[in-house]
Structure formats: C-alpha cells, structure tokens
C-alpha cells in the first residue's frame, strides 16, 4: 500500500513538473544558446599553420605543439595560443610548400601482416620544405625532430631538432614519401612546376633519380602531421589516379584509375584540401575547373572500414571551392557550402546533398 502511494506521488510530481516546464516555454519560447566570448590575446606569433605535432609523454597522454611557417623560419610553438616559440628553424627563403612527415608509428613490416607491431625509430618527424632562395633558385630543406618515447620528454626532443640537409632542387612541390618500410630506403618525391617531372631524394638529401610522367598530373598535397600516411592521389584531367607509396622504386604506374566522366582543366584545378578521417567515413575532394568531386576515400584505396555508401564519388556542377581545412566545408566565391559526412546513410543524413550555408558577400 505504501509503495502504491509513493508511486502515485512520484508520477504526480513528474506530471506537474512537465506541465510547468512546457507552460514556461509557451510564455518564454526556445531561444538559441549564446555565450559571451572574452578576448584572450590580441596578437600571436606570425606564420601559417602547417600542422600540430603530437608528442608522446606517457601512456595515453600526448602534448600538442603547433608548427608555423613564415618567410624565413619554421616555428615550433608551445601551444595553440601561439604566444611562445619553443624552437625556431631557419630556412633559406620563402617556403613554396612545407610537409611534416610523421615517421614513428608509421613504419611496419611489409607486406603488412595482421597484428604486426609498429617499429620504433629515433627520428619522430621529418620536416621537409621547398624554399625560393634569394638568388632565384629553389632549395629542399629537411629538419628532423627526435622521438620522445624513450625519455618521455617532448621539450628535450624539440630542443634536439637538427638540420638533416639542404640541397638545390628544380622542384616546387612535395608529393609524398615512398618506400618507408622495414628494410627500405625512404624517398621523398618532389614535383616540378611543369607537373610532368619528379625528383626523388633520400632522407639524407642525396638525389636518387628523376622521372618523366609523360603528361601533366596534379597530385593531392600530403597531409602534414598525420600518423597514418594516406594513399597518393593524382589527377590527369580525366581520371583520379591512385598510386602505391610502398613502391621501392616508384615509377608512378597507378594501381587504380577512376574515370570522372568529363575532361577538366588542370591549370584551374584544386586538389589540396585536407582529408578528414573518421571511423565511419573519410573523404577527399577535387575541383577540376568545372565541377567539385567528393570521393569516398575508403572506396578509392583498399579501404579500412566498411561503409554503407557504395558510391565512389559525388559530383556537384558549378561549385568552385578554394583551399579549405576540412572535407566538410567548401568556401567558394559566392558563399560557404557544407557536405554531410559520407557513410552516414544509416543515420538518415542526406549524405549526397551539398548545403549552401552563407554568403561571402
């Protein structure tokens, strides 16, 4: 009897609370939540963000140190506030492109075997930069950041960063690193301005070979600071090309060719958007001078995760995007567009429709 009375009292209380809540909302309707922002800093260290380095300090704990590039220096900063430089690395001129390659945790036995442990290296990250020097020539510069795994001291690792090499080059951009596998000799591939020729250098700066592609290929810029090296992707005006970065002697013969159904203009193309990883999806994007293509990354290469979206790519005509930091947001001349993540069909998201968010005018 007592339990029945207690139940009745509890239900009545909840009912009254519900009525009071909804009555309040009828009088004071829903309003978007707002939060006043307070200016933390009115200035920061100059330079463009390249990536954020994650250093191992203890189990499941990492420090995050941003890397900036300015006219004559690479700067490793203390934190995201960008108020203090921990280490400044001089470069011989304006950087045309800078790529931070994470080596520790990247290299494993090849061919890959399930359960294979990652190999440990004393060099954690390689910072490559192609610079325009004062005398009009280009230089490829490399700095090496040691690993912090042994003594778990990332500040010591940063202070121990050293210059590996500086060599002249005719190249203007960095494609990716090849053959960095157990027993292999890693090669950094650099492309010339004509988009037809490639020069290869080892990690000591020695010129290894050159390659004539026989046609123009625009390569997607590599993603700096990533623990996982993504597939090397190229665009030849008609197709998306997939290349194998495990090749010991790269000849740039594509492992997969994906026709796009139209001929674009390489000189007007944009293929430098950062790739976005997620356990359910990943996407890469290309503007070919006419249309924007959104590629389901896990259907381009071998794929690591199963996706419920079987389309390799979606095409959106008349949308020209500029450089972006996310595969979801596309700044254009007329405004900002948003594409919901690929692979989320199960959640009822309109995953193949691009949404106009706001005007830039």
Q: Strand pairing plus helix content: what structural class?
A: mainly beta
Element-by-element helix/strand order: HEEEEEEEHEEEEEEEEEEEEHEEEE
Fraction in beta strands? 35-45%
| Rounded radius of gyration (Å) | 25 Å
* Parts with pLDDT < 50 across at least 5 consecutive residues: 24-28, 106-113, 115-119
Give a verbal description of the structure.
- The strands form six sheets. A four-stranded antiparallel sheet has the order 1-2-3-4. Strands 5-6-7-8 form a four-stranded antiparallel sheet, with no helix packed on it. Strands 9-10-11-12 form a four-stranded antiparallel sheet, with no helix packed on it.
- With 361 residues, it is mainly beta.
- It is globular, with a radius of gyration of 25 Å.
- It has three helices and 23 strands.
- The longest helix is centred in the N-terminal third of the chain and has 26 residues.
- The chain folds into two domains: 206 residues, no CATH class; 102 residues, no CATH class.
- 10% of the residues lie in helices and 39% in strands.
Task: Quickly describe the structure.
The protein is mainly beta and 361 residues long. The chain has helices at 2-27, 154-159, 297-300, and strands at residues 48-58, 61-69, 73-77, 85-90, 93-102, 123-133, 138-146, 162-169, 171-178, 187-192, 197-202, 207-212, 218-219, 232-235, 239-243, 256-259, 276-277, 282-287, 291-296, 313-317, 329-331, 335-338, 355-359.
List its salient traits.
3 helices, 10% helix, mainly beta, 2 domains, 361 residues, four-stranded antiparallel β-sheet
